[in-house]
């Protein structure tokens, strides 16, 4: 079996209850895209300055970048929670009672490490795979607003 090494890209993601904003950077640190989604729809600005619009970021990333960005689930999965809007989840837990593996929709989420952020800890390394995409998320810093549940 041949193993392939893939370059590491960086995503800066700011999530609020009513909006998402993402900056996608290449392995060399140059900006690839700036994306925004709110009640008015989604906007993607490519590195060449060209703007693309769609109803939501999932449709927009599929059309422009060729892959789906599962924000509907990711905002929950990255916190170790099943997404309430998706069909029932299958979960396994580690010895400390934290999610270890979550299967929901067409996605599998493996929790590889946890940080001390938040009340009971938050995932710091997450492996996400589904719909022809595999992403390893490494959270460098959690900024938790205690007033948001």
Summarize the structure.
The chain has 149 residues and is mainly beta.
The top level CATH class name of the largest domain: Mainly Beta
Average pLDDT level? 82
CATH fold topology of the largest domain: outer membrane lipoprotein receptor (LolB), chain A
Assembly classification:
single chain
Q: Helical amount among residues, as a percent range?
A: 10-25%
| Radius of gyration, CA atoms, in whole angstroms | 16 Å
- First CA to last CA: what distance? 44 Å
Provide the β-strand percentage band: 35-45%
Largest sheet: 5 strands, antiparallel
Largest sheet: spatial strand order: 1-2-3-4-5
Poorly predicted tracts of residues: 1-6
Which CATH-level-2 architecture of the largest domain? Clam
Q: What's the layout of helices and strands?
A:
Blueprint: E1 10-16, E2 19-25, E3 31-38, E4 41-46, E5 51-54, H1 57-65, H2 71-77, E6 90-93, E7 99-104, E8 107-115, E9 122-130, E10 133-138
Antiparallel strand pairs: 1-2, 2-3, 3-4, 4-5, 6-7, 7-8, 8-9, 9-10
